[in-house]
Design brief:
Shape: globular
CATH class of the largest domain: Alpha Beta
Strand order of the largest sheet: 6-5-4-7-10-15-16
Order of helices and strands: HEEEHHHHHEHEHEHEEEHEEHEEEEEH
Radius of gyration: 20 Å
CATH architecture of the largest domain: 3-Layer(aba) Sandwich
Distance between the termini: 28 Å
Number of strands: 16
Helix content: 40-55%
Oligomer: single chain
Length: 354
């Protein structure tokens, strides 16, 4: 844990959405932000599964790290139950955990990596699992810092940087992908202001992006989702940077619903549209965006607001959580292995083999 603390201090953000203390995993409950900072203990794999599904933690990299610690907890549970075939037990729990949020590929990636580490482990299995989970966390923060450096160089010297949803410290191990790029540009001395789409229906932009940037003293302006086109057309936006939950082998990107709209508007207004994501979000097994499963959530997220009914009873609702931005709309994909540009089939394959 000391290494994690050092790398978080190096990152420089005051915000981190998770803790590992005395063998227990804690998540900052993002459903309660910005008005209440509550830490939710996760003492079992079921706790982790529910935390991911209930949006206590969100953002593909943060979900992956959380899943890694969920595997540590499931291993402990199996050992306490004196399971004769502990590996079969942990594999079954990993399969369950992958279903918590099917779109975010980092969840599957982290579970598989933990299973591989356990199969190679010699000696103390719990220590091996804990070490691997901590490594996944540390590598994520270091990857974010490098993405911030590379992406920061691409940004204009001044202007507005539009982002959608929250792809910051709260969505990662403690620095950010899209917001890491904003941090990187500011570290280079660029005069940037982040414009945050509010991001209906969970308002991750309003509740989370604005909160964490204010915590770190980074200039931020909140706008309703429908204002992004107007802001671009009137010259207030110089670039767009978003995160990703999965990137297909051809460069199609799954991200928070509304990202595709922003990409279309950016291209129409001649504004660069960047995606920032770690290599673990690249999915070579998914050929195009058409193959990415899109999670649908409860209709109450649309028909109510803060517990108050805002639509007529029995309203028919469609509530996809993500959409697909085709690769043609993406100026570049910023990863810790470099800035990827079209043709994405070859640049993604090269990044994965590096």
């Amino acid at each position: 844990m000391k290494k994690i603390i050092r790398v978080l201090n190096e990152a420089g953000s005051k915000v981190c959405p998770m803790r590992w203390e005395d063998g227990e995993f804690y998540l900052l409950d993002q459903r309660r932000l910005p008005f209440e900072e509550t830490w939710l203990p996760c003492r079992s794999m079921v706790d982790v599964f529910n935390a991911i599904g209930d949006m206590v933690v969100r953002g593909a990299p943060a979900i992956g790290i959380t899943a890694a610690f969920g595997m540590v907890l499931s291993l402990r549970e199996g050992l306490k139950k004196d399971k004769k075939d502990i590996f079969a037990y942990v594999h079954s729990k990993g399969k369950e955990l992958k279903e918590a949020r099917p779109t975010a590929v980092n969840l599957r990636w982290a579970v598989d990596r933990m299973l591989n580490a356990l199969s190679d482990a010699k000696g103390d299995l719990v220590k091996a699992a804990e070490d691997e989970a901590l490594s996944i966390w540390e590598e994520d923060v270091r990857a974010n810092i490098e993405m911030g450096r590379l992406g920061g160089e691409l940004l204009p010297d001044s202007g507005g940087l539009l982002t959608h949803c929250n792809a910051g410290a709260l969505a990662t191990g403690g620095y950010g992908t899209a917001l890491g790029v904003a941090r990187g540009g500011i570290k280079l001395g660029k005069d940037l202001t982040v414009f945050a789409d509010e991001t209906r229906p969970w308002l991750q932009g309003a509740r989370l992006t604005v909160w964490e940037l204010m915590e770190d003293g980074i200039p931020v302006v909140l706008n309703v989702d429908n204002a992004s086109g107007f802001l671009m057309r009137t010259g207030r936006i110089s670039a767009v940077v978003v995160g990703a939950d999965r990137i297909a082998a051809n460069g199609d990107v799954a991200n928070k619903i509304g990202t595709y709209n922003v990409a279309v508007l950016a291209r129409d207004n001649g504004i660069p549209f960047y995606v920032a994501a770690p290599v673990s979000t690249l999915d070579p097994l998914t050929h195009t965006g058409d193959d990415i499963p899109i999670e649908e959530r409860a209709s109450e997220e649309i028909t109510t607001f803060s517990g108050i009914q805002t639509a007529p009873e029995h309203t028919v609702v469609v509530n996809p959580v993500f959409d697909i931005t085709p690769w043609e709309y993406i100026t570049a994909i910023i990863t810790e292995k470099g800035v990827l540009r079209p043709p994405y089939e070859s640049s993604i394959a090269k990044a994965l083999s590096a």
